[in-house]
Amino acid sequence: MPTTGRLAPSPTGAQHLGNARTYLLAWLSARAGGGTVRLRIEDLDTPRNKPDAVAQLFDDLARLGLDCDGDPVVQSANLAAHAAALDVLKRRDLVYPCTCTRSDIATAAAAPHAEHEGPAYPGTCAYRTAADAAGLDRPHAWRFRVTHSPAFVDGFRGPTAIDLTQVGGDFVVWRSYDAPAYQLAVVVDDAAMGVTDVLRGDDLVPSTPRQLLLYEALGLPAPAFTHVPLVVGADGRRLAKRHGDTRLQTYWHRGVTPEAVLGTLAWSCGWLEKPDPVTARDLLPLFTLATVPRTAWVADETLLVSSQNSTAEEQRSGEVRTQV
């Protein structure tokens, strides 16, 4: 049966080379098998959303040729569905109200990353039931009670098991200022969009058992999960401003072509012997996860510029030889 994959960017800033590599892998993973690709804008982290980020995102995807099927889904438009899912969890007493400080739950605002996991929640409010919320006179978040940690077979990493009692513990599904947290929203939205396969960065591996718990609790079919290595800087940390300007929009302004970007990304995945310019469609018959390195790919802002300059020089040399 054809698969349905998805791209799920957040409008919290410009898309960079690392984002593009993961999007390309996710797009090819679905398209190579004749599947569809949906697009969802994950805009729930409203304090960090940037005004022009969505328009830039659409431009970046169009330049790269990563087309999507159907209308884009805006996550904040689905708040009623998120709230209905929370009600199901309350009725089943699978969540409890948590009055811990705002800083304790702030990390649930957006998709968490490995370096942001922090210590496991100590269970301060775990003695409560869902009904106890009616007697509280202060804001509270809702935490899902972790009773087990589902193992899963990752499409890239193979069998994967994480002990949630040691990594995060009971997790927030609804924030104290009355908004859904990442884990609940992404489960509800992926199910509503008919997503069958999720390919994303391996910083989100710890999110998968949490989401599997929610799929189980809500009676929803869970997708297959694949987590691929991130793009990092020379210091081994996830790509960020400290590693120079690797924003896609900056490359376009510098005259770097989308084909050059795609060629470099394809080379980093082992599909090309050197970073020659290609289109996304050119890569469909070449796509395989087997050649993708098991470790993070190290990149910096000079990579694409030097790569494109080398390609241009080779083309000029070829033209000279032909004329001679």
What's the structural domain tally? 2
- Could you name the CATH topology of the largest domain? Rossmann fold
What is the correct CATH architecture of the largest domain? 3-Layer(aba) Sandwich
Largest sheet: 4 strands, antiparallel
At the fourth level of CATH, the homologous superfamily of the largest domain is: HUPs
Helix content: 25-40%
Low-confidence stretches: 312-324
Number of helices: 9
Class from helix and strand fractions: alpha/beta
Question: How would you characterize this protein structure?
Answer:
Helices cover 33% and strands 15% of the residues. The radius of gyration is 21 Å and the shape is elongated. It has helices at 17-31, 53-64, 79-91, 102-105, 182-192, 207-218, 248-253, 258-268, 302-323, and strands at 4-7, 36-41, 73-74, 95-98, 141-144, 152-154, 158-160, 171-175, 179-180, 197-201, 224-228, 231-232, 297-298. The strands form five sheets. A four-stranded antiparallel beta sheet has the order 4-5-8-9. It is an alpha/beta fold and 324 residues long.
